[in-house]
Amino acid sequence: MDILRNLNKAQKMAVETIEGPLLILAGAGSGKTKVLVSKAAYLLQEKIVKPGNILAITFTNKAANEMRERMEKMTGISSRNMWIGTFHSICVRILRRESEHCAFDSNFVIYDDHDQQVLIKKCLQELGFDDKKYNARAVSANISKAKNLLLTPYMYLTEASNEWEENIGKIYELYQKRLANNNAVDFDDLIMCTVKLFEQNPQVLQIYQNRFQYILVDEYQDTNTSQYTFINLLAASKKNICAVGDPDQSIYGWRGADIKNILSFEKDYENCRVIKLEQNYRSTKNILSASNSVIANNIQRKEKDLWTEAEDGELIHYHELPDDRSEAAFVVETIELLRRMHGYEYKNFAIIYRTHTQSRVLEDALVKYKLPYKIFGGQRFYERKEIKDTLAYLRLLINPTDEIALARIINEPKRSIGASTWQKLETSARAKDISVYNALDDEATLDTLTPSARKNVLGFYNMMEELKNKVNKISMAELLNELWQVTGYKKALEENDPIAGEARLENLMEFVAAAVDFENTAKLAEVSDEEDALANEATLENFLAQISLATDMDNWEDNQNFVSLLTMHATKGLEFPVVFMTGLEEKIFPHSRSLLDETEMEEERRLCYVAMTRAEKLLYMTRAKSRNIYGNYQSMQESRFIKEIPETYLDAHCIDFAPIRSRYEYKNLDKTNHLFTGRAKPNYQGNTNVQLINIGDKVQHAKFGVGVVVQVQGKGDDIQLNIAFPGQGIKVLMQKYAPLKKV
DNA sequence: ATACCATTGTTTTTT
DNA sequence: ACAATGGTAT
Fold this sequence. Notes:
- By secondary structure, this protein is an alpha/beta fold.
- It is built from 30 helices and 21 strands.
- A hairpin with a 3-residue loop joins strand 17 (698-701) and strand 18 (705-713).
- Helix 16 packs across helix 17.
- The longest helix is centred in the last third of the chain and has 31 residues, at 498-528.
């Protein structure tokens, strides 16, 4: 019995307990993933459970992919029919199949954060609310909170106790209506709609209850009310639910996660078994002891005893630096030192921080030192303008009622369909109660436009109609190329901005690659999968859904060699030989917004615990005495979390200003012929105009065209160029700012 | 209709 | 410091 061989006693018991409710309290680094994978494998191989009867829910796509891969490797059984995914992806799948019971069609689109804000702003306008008092961000946070608690607009309005809440309720109500008009849902809807679907259609719920005989839930401590309800509905009949989590790692309270869900699991399920995994296989004794000391300061907590057989290891390295730039330089120099002297590789390092903004200084330092790195944060690739534009086109093709998408691209590239024309279209569409897209070829609507606008609008409409006919008939790559061609998008990129356009075109190519990849994977699945063909089909709808739910954490590739930069939240579930925790300062970490609230402070402390326990061998903690915030320097106090680590585990250093400072001031690095020459190629794409330009060179400028350099002044970062552009005279340009390219 | 400038808010964390 | 917005000039 291979599956059980490499497990300790508690782990083995957790795997073998398969009937009835089971709670696994898994401390950091206790082999949680291993247990989950083994359990799924055990069910399939030893208990002959069909893959289709297992539902495994993880917190991230990355965790889902990892589970899938490891399980297939362990058993050799295809996991294709097994439902593994995040709450969101599982719910999309269910909603697509059951859309007949819902307020939308099966080709619904998923609005991201940005689309959501745009729509809320429109609602605010429509209702005549002051968008200063009701800013879109705050409103969407409130709506999200309501949805996480499964409150419909009606319920919210009923419970509203003041004017603000009443108005939020009204906005919420209209927002839902507009979403329905656009055949769109937001992230929170995915879960809430599925729960409502189950509650209102017992016969549908029953189908899924019968199907999912075994349910595994990862990171149970981070479930919110709607997710909790979703799980409970599904598990209600068979009660074969296995929840895995660690209350000490609950860090998503701000997103509605309720730590009570895991704490009351035993009350929720009678005859529940509880298994604790307390042996840590990840970190050294010192790292573990230090982490345990910090988390012990939380009052609201179940005692837990995490231990390890590992050696003591080095003490926690704590360094105080004069400012944020020296902090960054220190981190980068230390990485390079460890790499050269102690045989670490770039991929062994993680630099982590509390907020994304902190990454900028660190990135600067990495660029200067020429280290390869990758920043993980949000959905950067899919948020690029050219990608979002393309997505808007695609969304419109499958769902013409999507007005947010239409508004985005109707005049992108420029087709002389401006704000006033849009206004007329929208007014007319509202009056006739049709979508704006349908108004585009409505005679009465067109009559309200100027002749030239009419021509442009019709041209756009016909173009889109022709593209629409090709959807799901030609390959994704063909469709994309055709789209960029006929819409003139590619041409506009090339012409308007030859320099930046090139990078954008590369992104578009990367997008094609992603599409082709999706198509291939999905086609593979179609062949082998009778049961679930619909959900895996290589359709544009499914491709878009996958993208909406994708993050750049998903494509984490272990074989690539770079330093990882990420937020503390994003590190959950990951581990690194060497971890740098930066910005250990009051107001940064713990964050200023949590200083006054004891509950929030405890969540910050759990976050600290999560971050510290990511480290296997070495843990560095750093802080700056002074930090650039909102553009000017502020003096910072040491984080309380440092004070909570007993001195016996700490090796503290304070690096003051001169003369040591120069060592950590990377500005002068080249001149002093420092020990680091940097061999690796950075994957930094930003400032690529570090090119040698001399008098007489021909250069291409984004706006002025081709010119000849007639004079070069200054040096280093401040090179000033005088360039003669035929017919436009001599322009004086700063090389670092000017969009220039040598020709 | 567009391009440019001034002003504003924005910074927690994410599917 | 920066991005996003809104207003004004072309």
